[in-house]
Amino acid sequence: MRRVRSGSFLVAAALFARTAAAAPASPPTVNTAPAAPDKKKEKPKLVALVLPDTRRVVGYEKVKPYASPEYEAEPPLEPSEARVVEVVDKEEALVLVRPWSSPMIGSVVPGARLPVRGVVHSKHTGGCATRLWYAIDPWGYLCSRSVRPTAEPATKEGLLVVPDGERLPFRYVMEVVKEGDKVPLWGSLDDAREGREPERYLERGDTVAIQKTLKVNDGQDYLSVEGKVMPVKGSMPLGGASEWHGEALDDKTVFPFGWITPDQAKVYDEPSTKKKPQETIARRTRVAILEEAGEGGKRMLRIADGKWVRAGDVNEVRRIPRPEGITAAKQWIDVDLGEQVLVAYEGAEPVYATLTSSGRAIPTPRGNYPIWGKVASISMKSQPYEDKAYFVNKVPWVLFFQAHNAIHGAYWHDRFGVTKSHGCVNVSPLDARHLFEWIAPSLPAGWSGWRPVDLLAQPTVHIRNSHQKKELIQERPIGPPDKELEAQKMEEAEERRAFDRKNDLPIAPAAPAEGMKP
Which tens digits make up the pLDDT trace of 106-130? Predict the structure, then answer.
């Protein structure tokens, strides 16, 4: 997602990407004593940006309450001869909040045709050498350098079109080569035909969204939806993704309820597992929770008369009151890491519930996080400070809630209901699409991403863990990735690699690109 002149949506949104948040491992022990490490300079104290009612963030000595940004008033619009403009940039064009150098409000794809509200002739060239800005519907401004007037009608379809009977907007393949083997991914057909250096190398587990097969040189190759080329050999089609989806809730829904977690859950005729089970229930069967007995690992749930199951075999869905400390937006989302469930609310009323897969080795952070970005699809890939490269292409329906962490569709697994991710909140593609379309505002046709002007007006993702004594603490700042923290991670990576070089230890190559990890 890049634009040569003004940077990509990722960069403009302060690294619109997901990192592997694990702390770097301690240097391994070697037989010979290493030279004394250079004295490290003291790292700057990071400031956590938080919602106004938050007083403390784990690991941050200072907090800074978020305040709504103030912008100069919008200038009066002049009439426009063009009713529709078409994006002519080779890559995504950035839509700005005001018709001058200002923050972005979103990005639009090449070829998108956008309705025009009017024009502004700016006094200065800042942000637009032509000084002519188009005010586009429903919000924001585009420099005339990025568009051309057109007599064609405005784009009507959203960016992700799902074929009838399908659950995904793209077909995907996954690399299944041996660990350590690498597969070339060329940036274009010409690069592949000319035998130029690949854009990157794919490894086991990497995925690519493809549009067709073709023969470039000696063997069969895939052409990706982004026009990149990779060999067919070593890859495996992923199929149509999980069929799982949650359910709509209304005032007739009885709480609590749940879904069976394991493939087969044993059912007992009393709140004890000492006797032989009377039957089993299949994974993801919806059950009522009528009564509870026992504590801890011995806790049991009655799901019908004379039928008890272990509480650990059920993803429990419980209604909670609207939390304190979230934004005033009517919509909000409750994610319970202990139960691996998500419930969407309109005011005090739950309207949708489903299963999630949150972080395993890298925990999903607890806290209150207003949604800071909405992206139709994004490639999640490694960043320069990570030692292992990865590439997960075209992840669909992404709601960023904290730095690199997002609620998004996961097409590469079907383990919803248990931890699985690297920190994000994975949901099935069907659930991701539902939540993406439910969260206001809708992404306008032709737009690939949207970033709110004011976080205090956005729905909050309320992340807690009902299995912990203290369900909710603020573990991370709100908003996009913090530049100082990103720089600190890069510095730590360079120090780690320098230590390895100095002591003749194996050095993992730096990850080749910015991105996020699902």
Answer: 999 999 999 999 999 998 888 899 9
